[in-house]
Amino acid sequence: MIRLHIASSARCVYVDFYRWGGAVQHVGSTVWSGTEALPGSHDTDWGWPAYDFLIPPDWQSGVYVAVLRAQPGHGAPVLDAREARLLFVVTPADPTGRTILYKIPTFTYQAYNTAGGGSLYSSGQVSLRRPGGGVGGPVKGLSDPYDLASPRQTFAHWDARFIAWMEGNGFEADFCTDLDLHEGRHLGDGYQLLLSAGHDEYWTAQARRHVTDFRDAGGNIANFGANTCWWRVRVAGDGAALACDKFPPGDRQGVDPDTSYGCPDHWWETDPENALLGVSYRGGGGHWDGPRKPLGFTVTDPGHWIFDGTGLKAGDVFGHDDALVGYECDGAAYSTDAQGRPQPTGEDGTPRNFRILGIARIPDTWNVAAREPAGSPRAATLGLYRSGGTVFTAATTDWARALATNPTVATITRNVLHRLS
């Protein structure tokens, strides 16, 4: 059963349900009477009228979008819209035998959701019971010059692209949300690989602990994104809200928390995310406004299995023409060995056995975060390490954007999914 909250001045609300995968599938419809209701604030439960819908037992785990209309008909809608859309995830009721579990970053969607006039960039708490959060609401942030069809920080921008490619290439997965991992569900159901893509920035301590336990027990992790696990959040109000303390004690006026020290919910200041992911945004950076200088990865270890079938040699660059590195990227502190290859120093919490397989030094003009003193420049560092299970990072948010057009990016992705699942 799912409960949707809808306000409408229409006499009837016609609801069509679609599953997003290798193709967009229309899977069901219903109709409800419309009821008007006023909007609320960003930090309160809007209390809109509730409608219950029984999920059919044959619906496969996946990401679903409910499309709302004032008239019947379901011909090829635009699934990404700022109103009249609701995103939800159907999780498996029982173990399915699939070996990939895809994490949908709903906490990050909600952090950037500005429905009700605020987000986690203007307030210490936001409600999860308001429009938006992946689709169907306003979003904070600048437009992406490389993909104007959808705003960043929405499902359509990165996750939908990755899922469409994944299922279109024969990789089947089950799906879950941040809240599922926060509450300790699914990771013990036989999955070999936990996968995320795009921008998975906001993690609770509980979710991180459960993912770490999964790795330690032999589970693999593939992160085809960046700026991952940058902020710690807390689930508040019986699961109805997210809270994040971003600012150092004192005056918040004009303070940029990314470039500040003493922020209570910076993961890196208390428990560096490198220890789990191998990399951190503080070792990389971002370019948020307008086109950026094209940047790809320089191959440093071409004999590694992730490059099988690519034909790449040491010193080759891939992804340059696609501006693959950005809009945000993660890195590890490193030094160079006698052959000039980058090796992690471990001073930032990165495991010493992390193998840097590709590197991209970021321009000095990019936005960067506060970090500890380090002897290496900031650079995106693509690579992996093993500790129980294997943890892979693509170290850039835009990996999913290049999947459908860059054969090298696609081949590396296939290699990672085949090996780790």
Residues in helix, %: 10-25%
Number of strands: 23
- Number of helical stretches of at least 4 residues: 8
Rg over alpha carbons? 21 Å
CATH topology: Rossmann fold
Q: Which architecture per CATH?
A: 3-Layer(aba) Sandwich
Largest sheet: 9 strands, mixed
Estimate the mean pLDDT confidence. Answer: 96
CATH class: Alpha Beta
Which class do the helix and strand fractions yield?
alpha+beta
Distance between the termini: 30 Å
Identify the strand order in the major beta sheet. Answer: 9-7-10-12-23-22-21-16-17
User: Which percent band covers the strand fraction?
Assistant: 25-35%
CATH H-level homologous superfamily name = Class I glutamine amidotransferase (GATase) domain
Assembly annotation: single chain
Low-confidence stretches: none
Identify the overall geometry: globular
Instruction: Return the domain count.
Output: 1
What does this structure look like?
The longest helix has 14 residues, at 407-420. The mean pLDDT is 96. The protein has helices at residues 106-112, 159-168, 178-182, 205-216, 267-270, 274-277, 399-402, 407-420; strands spanning 2-5, 12-20, 24-33, 50-53, 62-69, 85-90, 100-104, 125-127, 174-177, 193-199, 202-204, 220-226, 231-236, 241-243, 280-286, 297-299, 317-318, 328-331, 334-336, 342-344, 355-361, 379-387, 389-393. The protein has 421 residues and is of the alpha+beta class. A hairpin with a 5-residue loop joins strand 19 and strand 20. The chain has one domain: Rossmann fold. It contains 8 helices and 23 strands. The protein is globular. The strands form 6 sheets. Strands 9-7-10-12-23-22-21-16-17 form a 9-stranded mixed beta sheet, with helices on both faces. A 4-stranded antiparallel beta sheet has the order 3-2-5-6. Helices cover 14% and strands 29% of the residues.
